[in-house]
Records
---
Amino acid sequence: MMNPLPGLPEFDYVKPASLAEASRFLAEHPGEARPFMGGTDTFVRMRDGFWKEKYLVDVKGLDGTNEIKFDPASGLTIGAAVNMNQVIASEPVKEHYHLLAEAAHTVASYQLRTRATIVGNICNASSAGDTIGACLVLNGSLRVHGVGGARTEPLTTFFKGPGQTALKPGDIVTALLFPVAPEGWAGKYIKLGRNTLSDLAIVGVTALGYPDRSAPSGYRFRLALASVAPVPLVPTQAELILAEKPIDEATIADAAEAAMNACTPIDDVRGGAHYRKLMVRNLTRKAVSEVWERIGG
C-alpha cells in the first residue's frame, strides 16, 4: 500500500570496501538491506512506502562497476554503475550496439539518466523497462557476485514476476554482458507513451534482425515486448514465423498477429488491455518492417 504521508523513512547507509563484504552484509540482512546504485527507483519506492529497507548498501565503484569495455572477439561489458547517459555517449555502444543507446535515450529525462543505470532498469524487473528489450534481443546476460562467488545469469530466465528476479540474498549484479552482435544486423525500439518525456511505456516493441543462411527465410529476428505481460515478453512464435517463411508484408503481418496473441496485458491508467494488444500488432509490424528495409528489404 502506498504511504499516505510520503517521506523517506530512516535508513542506514552502508559503504562496504569490497564485493565480498557487500554480499556478506546483504546475506546477513535479508529483506532489510538493498544494493544501491543510482537510486532513481529506490528513493521513490521508499518514499511511497513500497520498500521498507533499513540499510542501503552502496556498491558503486566496487571492482569495475563503473567501466565500459569492448572486445571485438568477445563483446561488450557495461559495469552495473554506468549511468544511461554514459551508455548513450559510449563510442563502442554507438558503433556496435546502437540499439542499446537508442533505447536508453527514451528513458525519462537527461537529468534522471545521469543517475539511472541499465542494470537498475533490469533489476527493477518492471515489464515496462525501456532498455530491457534491447538487452534481450542483443542476448544480454548479467554477471552476479554472491556469497558463493561469481556467476552469470542469462536475461532470458532472470525475470520471475513483477518486481521478482533470479537474484538471491547476498547477490549483487556487477556488470551487463553482451556477446558480439550478429553480422549485418539492424534494430529498432518503438515506445508508445502518453508523452515524449519520462512516461512509462504503454507498449514497447523491440526488434532485431540479421541475415542467417541456416534459417529457411534467410533471416532471423529477435523480438521483445514491454508493458504487455507480467514480465518482459519474447514472442517466440512470431520469431519462428519470420525465420521460416519468406519475408514479405504478409509474413510480417502474420508475425505481428502472433506477437499480439502472445501478450497478456492489463487495464491500467496508461491504457486498456485491448488497446495494448492492437498496438503490439501495429508496432511489431512497423518495427519489423523498418528492420527488414535495412537488412534485406
---
Amino acid sequence: MTVKYINNILFFDEVNVLDFAKTNQTPFYLYSQNLITHNFMEYTQNLNTANHLLCYSVKANSNLSILSILSDLGSGFDIVSAGELQRVIAAGGDPAKTVFSGVGKTEEEIKFALSKNILCFNIESQEELNTLNKIALAEKKIANVSVRVNPAIDVKTHPYITTGMRDNKFGIDESEIINLYQEANDHKGLNIRGIDFHIGSQITSLEPFIDALSKVISIIKELKSLKIELEHIDIGGGLGISYDKKPIVSKEDFSKEILKLVEPLDLKLLIEPGRSIVGDAGILVTKVINTKKSPSKNFLIVDAGMNDLIRPPLYSAYHAIKEVSQTKNKKILSDVVGPVCETADFLGKDRMLSVKQGDYLCVENVGAYGFVLSSNYNTRPKIDEYLAKDTDIKKIRIRDTIEQILENEKKCLV
C-alpha cells in the first residue's frame, strides 16, 4: 500500500505529500520508483523457471526516466511507433529486446526500426507483411516477424480497450493465420520468429488469457505440422490493477497458469505488461481552486483537468480521490471537476470529501495512461512529473511554458 495516512497527512511511498505540494506547483504527477521496481520484479520472480522476456509496454508511461529504470532491470520493450523506439534508445534501452506492435506502421517507421535491428515486428495484416518484405529486401536486411492472431475473445472490459474481438482493428483472424504464415515463409526478406496476441487492457481475471492462449497453441501445433518452426510466443499484456479495491488475479497466479500451458511448447515466452508495472505507482496531486454549490450538486473545482487525466471522461474510469490532509470536518458528497471548458471535465463524481479552497487532493493509480494521454487543450501546459525513491524526489519532466506551446505556430504565423 503506497498511499497511507500518518497523523492525518497523506504519504505516498515515503513522501509527505502535503509538504511537497506546498513547495511545488500543482497539479503534478508523482511516481514511486520502489513500486515500479517491485511490480517488475514480481513478474520476473514468478517467471524465473521459464525462458522469458518482459517487454514493457511503452505506451502505458513513456517517461524516459521510467524507461531507464526498467532497462536497468533488464526489461525489453513493446513499442507502437518510431517515436517510442527513439524514447527506448534515448533511455538506454536495447532495440534488440524491442518488439514493434500496431496496425499502422509507416514505411519510414519500418526503415528506422530495421536500421536499429529490433527483435521483432508484430504483423497485423497481409499488406503490412508484403510492405515489410519489400522494404527489408530494398534495405538488404532480414526482418524478424511474428504474426498477431485475433483470437475473438471477449475480455469484458471497456469497449475502447478490447483488442482481441472480431470487430477490433487488431490482428489476423484465425481462419487466415495459417495462410499468412505460409506466405511469410516464402518471403526472402522475412524471418519468422514467433506468434503473438493481445486481447485487451485492464483484464482482471485469468479466463480470457487462458482461452486465447489455448486457441493460439492449436495454431502453433498446426504450424509445426507444416514445418513452420517458431522461437517465441508473445502473449501480449493487459493484466489489470485494482482501481476500486476489488480483488483481481495476482501476478503469481497469472504466471503460474500461463507457464502450465507455455512451458511444454519449448518456446521463449514474451509478455508485454504496462499498466500492471506502473499503474499503481503514480498519483496526481491537485489543488482546490474553488468550491461551488448548485441546487443539485456540490462541486470541488481543482487545477487538474481532463487535459491532465482524461481516463475518467474517456473510459468512465474510476480513480480513488483522497484528501491530502484529513480533518474532522463533515464530508460532503461532491463532484471533483477541473478548469477545462467541457462538461466532461471531471476527475470523479459523487465523492465524500472534506476540503476547502486551497486544500489538496490526491488522485490514485494514475501511473499508466495518465500523463501519456494528456494534452494542451485550452492552451494549458502539460504538467511536471516527479519520481520518488524513498524520500528522495527528482523532477523527471519540466512543465511546459506557454511560449513553448506557441513556438511552432509562431514560426508559421501568416
---
Amino acid sequence: MKRSIGIHWVLLFLVFCLVFFRLYQLHFYPDPRIKQQSESQYWSKLSLSSPRGRIVDRNGVPLAISVPAITFFVDPLFWRPENADLLKPIISRERYFRLKGNLKGRYFPVAKKVDLENANEIIEKDIPGLFWVKEYKRFYPHGELMPQVLGFCDIDDRGLSGLEYLWDFLLYTPPEMLTVTKDASGKIINFPTYSDRSWDGSRKGEVRLTIDSRVQHVVEKYLRKAFELHHADWAAAVLINPKTGEILASSSFPDFDPNIRKTFLRSESLRNNVISRVYEPGSTLKPVMMGIALTEGKASPQKDHFYCTGKIRVADTTIHDVKPHGSLDLEGVIINSCNIGMATIGMRLDPKKTYNHLIRFGFGMKTGIELPGEEKGLLNTPELWRGSVPANVAIGQGIGVTPLQLARAIAAIANGGYIVKPFIVKEAVTPEGEVVYRGKPERLGQVISTETSRWLKTAMENVVKRGTGQAVYRKDTRIAGKTGTAQVARGGVYQKGVFVSSFVGFWPVDDPENLLLVVIGYPKGREYFGSVVAAPVFRDVMEEILKISK
C-alpha cells in the first residue's frame, strides 16, 4: 500500500518536472514557428507611405514636395454608427453611409491622407473606435503652376504623369512598415501618435529643373489672361534660352491643380500643349523657310522683288493674302508677312532638299526633351509634295509642328544658325548625393550660316519696328519677332473663322538670351490675328522679365 502511494508521488513529481521543463523551454528557447504564430496574434504590420524626393526649380525653389498627412480608420468592434456625422468633413457620401451601418471585422478604412489642419479637428474630438496613423502625401506649393510638366501622383505616391512619372524611379521611396500592438482578442491597442514617430527628415532623391519659377509665374499669368479673354480652346507658351536650349518657362492651358484631383478629370487639361499639340504654324515658319531659300540660293536680298496683288494661282490652288502689298523686296516679304512672296519662293525650292533642310531644323521628329508624351509633328515625305504643296509649306501650311519644335527652329536663327537640344532637367540626384543625370547645352549642327542668321535677325527686328509685330516694340530693347495667323484644316479643308494665333520673338537681338513663343488655339470673337491675340502676351511677359533681370 505504502509502496503504491510512493510510486504515485514519484510519477506526479516526474510529470511536474516535465511540465516545468517544457514551460522553461517555451519561454527561453521557443520554437520559431510557434513564436511567429504567437506574435502574429499580438502584432500587425501597417504600410505607411514615405516622403518622395523633391522637384525644385533652377534656384532651389520647391515645386513638388511631400508633406505630413493623416490616414483614419475605425475598429468596428468599438465604433458607434452615430459618430459618422462627426466625420462628414473628411469622408465621401458612400463612406458615410457605410459608417452609419453595421461594420464587420476589426478594420475599416475611413479617409486616406487627410491634410493636418482638417485631421487635427477630427483628432481633437477623440471619437471612440477611430484610429489614425501618420503618412505623407504629395503637395504642389504653387498649385496650378505648370501641372502638365510636373505631373501628379496616385494615392500611394507613385508618379502617374509628367516629371513625377518619368523620374519616379528616383523620387519614389518605398513605404515604411509600422508595427501595431493587439491584445489577446485581436483588438489593436496601441497606435502611433505624433510623438511616437517623427517625420522622416532623411535625404531623398531630387530633380532640379532649368525652370525659373519667377518667370514661370509671369508667363502663366499673361497666357491665362489671353486664354480666357479670347475664349480659346487651348494655349501654349515656351521660353527658351536660344544659345543653350534651357527651358526657362513652359505653360499650357487648359490646366489643373494637382492638389485637387477633381480638377484634372478633363483629358484636355492633362495635355502638355508645348510638346504634344501639333498644329500648322502659319507665318511663324516663314523665317525658317526664307533661311532655307537663302541657303539654297533660291532667294537673293539684292535681286529679288515681288509685286503682291493679294492672290496668286499655284497649280490647282489660289493662295490669298490679307491684302495687296504691292512692290516688295525680300526683306519686305518677311516684314509684311506676304504669302504671295513666300509662295513664289516656295515654288522655286526643290522638295527633296527642302524636306532635308526641315529635318535638320528638327521638324518631323521629337526634340528628346526629358518629358513624356512628346509628339513628333507631321512632315510629309518629298514624294507627296505635289502641286501647290511647296508653296503651302513656304507659308506654314501642310506641315504640323509642336510649339517646342518651332521655338527650337527659331532659336537657330537667333543664335547664329545652330540647332540646340532643348532640356528642362538641370540635374537629378540620388538620395546618396550622386548626380545620375545632368542636362547640358548641346549643339546638334549648323543649319544656316552666320550671315543668313544675321540677315534674318535684321528682317525680324524690322517686323517689330515697322511690320506686323509693332505691338511688342520697345525703344530701350532690340527685339526680333514674327507673327502668325494660321487657318485650321479639318478633313483636308480649311475652316472658316477657325485660327491659331501666334507670336515668336527673341531679345536682345545682338546677343539673345530669351526666346518666347506664344500660341493661342482657336480664339473666339472678332480678334484672331497673331499681332492682336498673341503679341500682347509676348510684350507683357518680356516687360516683366526685363524687370526681374535688373
---
Amino acid sequence: MAKEILCGFGVDVDAVAGWLGSYGGEDSPDDISRGLFAGEVGSPRLVKLFERFGVKTTWFIPGHSIETFPEQMRMVAEAGHEIGIHGYTHENPIAMTREQETEVLDKCIDLVTKLSGKRPTGYVAPWWEFSNVTNELLLERGIKYDHSLMHNDFTPYYVRVGDSWTKIDYSGKPSDWMVPLKRGQETDLIEIPASWYLDDLPPMMFIKKAPNSHGFVNPRDIEEMWRDQFDWVYAEMDYGVFPFTIHPDVSGRPQVLKMLERLIEYINGHDGVR
C-alpha cells in the first residue's frame, strides 16, 4: 500500500477575540494590543511564509477577526487559503443556549461566505468545546467537517452524539455513579482530530490569568516533540492525517516562524506526504 500522510496547518486567528472570549484579557489594554499584533502583524507574516513554500492551509477565523482586520483577512482569502468558522468572539459553546449558539453560527457563516466567496465547510469550536447541539447545528448548515474533538489523533472519524457519562457524587452511594460511559450515535460530520500536543499556543503564549501559563518554552523543544510525532506516524501508518494548530498570536513571532520553516522543510523531505 502506498503511503499517504496528509499534513495540514489550521490557523486560528484568535487575535482580540481570544482575549475577549477565553483568555481573560478583556479588561487589559495590553492584552488587547497583543491581539492587534496577531491580526495586523502575525497574520501577514504567516501568509508570506506559506506563499514561500507553496503551502495552502485552512484559516479558522472568528467573525470578530474578520470584521476587525478586513485588510489582513482579505489577504488570506486572496492567497487561496480555505476559510473556516471559529465562533465570533471565541465564546464558549457550552456556556451558550441553543438560540445563542445558532445566532453566532449563522452570523459567522455569513461573514466567512462574504470573505471567501463560498460557504464554509469546516468548523473549529472555540476552546475546542462542543455543546450538546453543536453537531446538529453544523450539519443543518451544510458543514462537512470539524476539527475540535480528540477521540483519535491521526485517523479521521465520524463524530458521535449522545455520549453520556455519570459524574461522581460523594454525597450519594457509589453504586449510583459507578457506571460506564455510554456511547451515542455516529453522525455524518467528519472529525479531523485536534490535539493539544500539536498546538502552538499552550506552550508558547503567555497568559496572565492562566495558572499553568508558559510562553517562554524554546520552540526547538516543541519542534522536537512535533517531529517525533510525525516520525512515529510516518513509520507506523500508511494512511493518516497530521494536523497542526497554530495561531498568528504565537506563530507570527520570529522564533516560531523559523521553527515552522524547519518543520515544513523536514516534512517535505518525505515521500508519500502531502
